[in-house]
Write a structure and sequence with these properties.
about 425 residues, single chain, mainly alpha
Length: about 425
């Protein structure tokens, strides 16, 4: 088989056809640009715009707070307007915000641009997920896994590019990297506009052939069951703060592990996600399978928290081993949760309001960006017991979510049988607000 044939065979296995592959290109370009900026943003604000530490923190906080609104607003717009146009508009907004950061040093203007960038980022994240859900159909879990793998590759490419450029150590390099970030959003918008509009499919539980029965509200803010699911998922997303804040601070300040281990654990996280996210997706390919993953996921979170606590042991070698086990465990939890969250957030949403529901679900990830750093720093301040409690709390949230989305009792009248594992889940459709 020639290289061209092998490439064609590989791309044919990606769900969503041509438009699905184009949206993967959007993810790659987007995340590469994000990697450029994430690696240099603090340095840019420090050495180019000459902001204080407090001012840099305020910019990050503004982006996080305004970003919380981006998810539900973007999802609601997608239920009323062409999805690709809304997504492209969000990409253009992000490009304009990045350019705004580039052309001004006024703090108020930087604050506005950071807030707009945060809004566009969270809205684009939800809209990209919604498009992938629609274009991949019943194979949405596999598509999510491929998308996440591609995104991690983009992050790595952006980070490596930034590291190489920063070797020059000039303010011009910082500006070039920010310009590259802005241009990546322009490129993402152009690719998005080349994609066909993906019509919302008839709502079918993944792995099954029966539409979810029962009438329900199409307003996610009145669906108490879905809001409760989002609340539990917010807790599960706290693992994101482990690699952004918790692991490095804990390793440096509370363990005997060598400081050089920290970047290696970050690399381990990235390599595991790129190598294993797609293979692991098959364990959550149906709605029932995704729900079932919540049980081993709870054990993984608990074991990882205990491993972090154990890394406080005396000695560089045992501390390094415990940290490596913890990093691998939290990475496994991250991958399993990504599969579960993608499937359940879609399966529990009515087709006619899918965008609005996924927008509300986007609040889970957006909110943890503010809560996550506080949670992990509290765990660090409490010591080994804090990490054990951290893992226990997330494990308990997994068990609560497993109960919340339990299978609906079979209807008395028989219906056409679908593939195994595709039974509808209790989501408050027939009985508003019934949490079971």
């Amino acid at each position: 088989m020639s290289p061209t044939q092998r490439w064609a065979a590989l791309t044919a296995r990606i769900p969503g056809g041509r438009d699905g592959r184009r949206m993967l290109a959007v993810a790659l370009v987007d995340r590469t640009g994000n990697g450029l900026w994430a690696a240099t943003s603090v340095l840019y604000f420090t050495y180019v715009t000459h902001l204080s530490v407090a001012q840099v923190g305020t910019l990050a906080a503004a982006a996080g707070v305004v970003g919380v609104a981006g998810a539900p607003v973007g999802g609601r717009l997608a239920d009323r307007l062409p999805l690709t146009r809304v997504l492209a508009a969000c990409q253009v907004l992000r490009a304009a915000a990045a350019l705004g950061l580039l052309v001004t040093t006024d703090f108020t203007s930087l604050l506005v641009c950071s807030a707009l960038a945060g809004f566009g980022d969270r809205a684009a994240s939800v809209l990209t997920k919604l498009y992938g859900t629609r274009v991949a159909g019943a194979e949405r879990v596999r598509y999510q896994a491929v998308n996440r793998t591609v995104a991690n590759v983009g992050w790595a490419l952006g980070g490596l590019g930034a590291a190489a450029a920063l070797a020059a150590g000039t303010t011009t390099v910082y500006r070039i990297l920010l310009l590259g970030d802005s241009l990546s959003f322009v490129a993402a918008a152009l690719i998005t506009l080349s994609c066909a509009e993906a019509a919302a499919p008839a709502r079918i539980v993944a792995g099954g052939s029966r539409p979810a029965p029962g009438a329900r509200t199409t307003n996610p803010w009145r669906d108490r069951t879905y809001l409760a699911y989002v609340a539990t998922d917010t807790v599960l997303f706290l693992d994101d703060a482990i690699f952004k804040v918790g692991l490095s601070l804990w390793a440096v300040h509370a363990t005997d592990a060598p400081h050089g281990l920290v970047p290696l654990l970050m690399v381990l996280n990235n390599v595991l996600v790129v190598g294993l996210q797609v293979p692991l997706a098959r364990f959550g390919a149906t709605t029932s399978a995704a729900r079932g993953l919540l049980l081993p996921l709870s054990l993984t979170f608990l074991a990882s928290g205990v491993a972090m606590a154990a890394s406080a042991v005396d000695g560089a070698v045992p501390a390094s081993i415990a940290l490596t086990v913890a990093a691998a465990g939290f990475t496994l939890a991250e991958m399993l949760h990504a599969t579960v969250s993608w499937e359940l957030s879609v399966a529990l949403a009515p087709e006619e309001s899918q965008g609005s529901y996924l927008g509300v679900h986007g609040l889970a990830q957006a909110s943890q960006r503010a809560v996550g750093p506080l949670a992990v720093t509290a765990a660090i301040a409490t010591g080994p017991l804090g990490w054990t409690a951290f893992g226990t709390v997330i494990a308990a949230a997994c068990l609560a979510q497993h109960r919340l989305v339990r299978p609906r009792p079979e209807p008395s009248a028989p219906s056409p049988a679908g593939p195994a594992g595709g039974e509808p889940l209790t989501t408050g459709r027939a009985r508003s607000g019934d949490l079971g």
